[in-house]
Structures are given as C-alpha cells and as structure tokens.
Amino acid sequence: MMRNQLCGNNLAPAQDHTSVDGPEMRNAPRYTLLIRAAKLVTQAGEFLCVIRDASETGISARIFHPLPSGRQMSIELQNGDRYDVEMVWQDADRAGFRFAHSADIRKIIECPSRFDKRPVRINLTAPAQVEIQGRAEYATIQDISQQGAKVACSSSFAIDQRVRLMADGMRNTSAKVRWRGNGACGLVFEETFQYGELASIVSRLQRQSQAARSLARDPLLTTS
Fold it and tell me: How confident is the model at residue 22 (pLDDT cuts 50, 70, 90)?
C-alpha cells in the first residue's frame, strides 16, 4: 500500500524508466525515488500524484486518472514546496513534466520539512452532507486528505462527536470532529483512505465541482 508519509532519501540513478522528455531524450541525470507523494495544481483543480523520478530538467510521476487538458500547472510536494511545470507527455498511469524554471534536484529528493509525516491535502469545493444521530446537515468539503477533511457547515458540532461524511463520488465515511471554528470543522476519519483510492475520489469530486462552477457561470448549461 502506498503511504504518502514516506519522504526518505532512497534513490538511485534511473536506468530503465521513460524520461521526462520522452524515450529518446535523456539529457540530464535522473534519480529514481522510492515514493514521493505530491499534488498537481491545475486550472481544473488539484489532483494527487506520486513522483517516481526526477532530474534537473523535470520529473515523471505516477497518475491515477487522465489529467485535465492544459499543459501549464504546478506540482506541490508534501513540505509545501511548489514548482511550475509543463506537462510534456501522458501515457496510462504515467506523465512527464518539464520544470518552467531551474529547480534544486537535491531539495526535491531530500524533501526537507519541519512537519513530521505531513499528509498531502487537496483543496476543493464539493457539496456533501454530515450525518449525526440520523440527521443530515448540508455541508461543503473544503479540503481532504487520507486522514481527514475540512468541512464548512451551518451546524456547530461538539469536539470528538462522531459523524458520517457523505458525498457523491466517495463512500460514506465515519469520522470524529477534531476542531471547529469560523463556520467550519475538522474531521478525522476513523478509517484512513488508501492513497490511490483518495486520488480517484478527488478526481470525481473535482469534476463535479468544475461542472457546478460552469453551471453557476451559465445557468443555461445542463449536466448529464
């Protein structure tokens, strides 16, 4: 099972992977990473990926679904470092990206951070419901990770109160209220999502969110 908390220095020169710029171009030394969880920030929303190798010119990553159209995007590491990239190729469950500006490859490999085992958190806006004692309250998921979510809602739940988070595109998920304030609350899931499962959930939620934004801009549009 993939674990997004791994951020060690397990690396070796890559020998048999498709390069960032395609099979024919191998201009810079590349390093194969054991695993490096990250997120892609695009105009269509944020999506999970796993960096598998990197060089001074770019990276290749495992993806879990077709990425939205548009070559310009950013990739953000677990420690919050963000790099502007251009998608060069996409093939099944892999994609290659070229850095828009020079990048410190050693910093990407070492992933220095003051946060211990910080999960990748995806920002989005997804309609949901929070159920408590058989009563469902309308809510909006504002961000989500393997371990929990930030949810905006009108009700004020008690700390440590057990609830169930429900949304189209994800399974009903039991959680506890960890914090509350400013019209939102933080939920900790009782069962952690696997990384690939969360990636698929995020993709579905982002598509729904994008469709809702399009409909809000043009009410004459209809969704199938």
Answer: low
